[in-house]
Amino acid sequence: MSSSSSGPPYKRLLHIMNVLNANKNCTAVSLAKELGVGERQVKRYLSYMRKVLGMEIIWEKSTGTYFCERPYEYLPLLRVSGDEALSLALASKTFAAWQGTALGTALDSILKKVSQVIGGAVSVPVSEVQSFLSTPEVGHDDDREHTWFGPLLEAIRRKREIKIRYRKPDSVRGESRTLWPLHLAYLDHQWALVFWDKNKNEPRKFLLSRIEALAPTGAPFTPPAEFDVQEYFKNSFGLFTGVDVFEIEIRFDKFAAPFLRERKWHPSQRLKEINNGGVIARFHLNHLMDIQRWALSWGGHAEVLKPKALRNNIKKELKVLSKNYA
To answer: How much is the pTM?
Structure first.
């Protein structure tokens, strides 16, 4: 932002804006009397409003008066750079995905207020940036996920117990669960609630799209001192989380190797170059399900070397696939 905290006092600028909006015969002399400052100071204020805030203030030489061609409802105190305009554009698309939910309404309201304050002082129009972006259409599952954002965030913030009805994919009807909500995480393109299971005395995860009903019980809770969300996700590759940590090794051929080198797929990732132009990728993970699906997605360009359990799982899967495509 290019507006400076060392600029003129806000109340004086607001007074000048209101006088200009009232279409009065506004002169530097009259403004100086109203504000109790010198005429030169008023001219500095007007210059600041023009150059820094981007307000269209016109001076009529024949009468010595100032006026605006259009009224300003807000002082445009913010100037937006290209990066900031892109952030606003992305935010507006995200908020649109939550349309109709309590949180979506609140976020949309905030965005509108920011847009009003920005006014005409946007150096890169948000509407122009939006034409460069494309986002997937929002589906039914996304709507269900976003329905629970507001209540869950409030329950996590206030440390309040909740009661939900949760339906697993293989169940006909949902089951009632009472739990302590701890954290919301976006995992494998889905939002999940991390909560403390009082019966098993351990953290667990539920997908928001599977929640059918939610209500606060009103009971407060104290998060377990031993729970650390960063540590909880440390060795997870996706949705699934386990206890034991496995050392994973997968060999990638010359075709796949550049894709491994250009990004880090997991914090524990380590690459070892091999003679044929390929790489061996090593990970430390606490569950095999997500890494198994990921390894299979590379087809013949990847081979699991260890652990033996993961290699055997891949073999079994390939037998089924071979039979399906025979």
So the answer is: 0.62
Which among 81, 3, 17 has a CA at the least distance from the CA of 46? 17
In sign, the C-alpha dihedral spanning 157, 158, 164, 168 is: positive
Gap between the Cα atoms of 100 and 291, Å rounded: 36
Distance (Å, whole) CA 16 – CA 42 = 9
Does residue 166 contact residue 144 with C-beta atoms inside 8 Å? no
For the chain, the residue count is 326
pLDDT tens digits, one per residue of 272-319: 999 989 999 999 999 999 999 999 999 999 999 999 999 999 999 999
Q: Which residues pair with 191 in a beta bridge?
A: 186
Look at the block and give the residue holding tokens 């390939």: 318
The rounded Cα 268 to chain-centroid distance in angstroms is 24
Backbone φ and ψ of 243, nearest 5°: -105, -55
Q: Please state the separation of Cα 231 from the chain's center in Å.
A: 21
**Which residues contact residue 151 at a Cβ distance below 8 angstroms, ignoring those fewer than 6 apart?**
102, 162, 214, 216
Running DSSP on this structure, what letter comes out for residue 272? E
For residue 276, what are its two tokens? Answer: 């044929």
Coil vs helix vs strand at 162 = strand
pLDDT digits (tens, 9 = 90+) for 225-258: 888 988 899 999 988 998 899 999 999 999 999 9
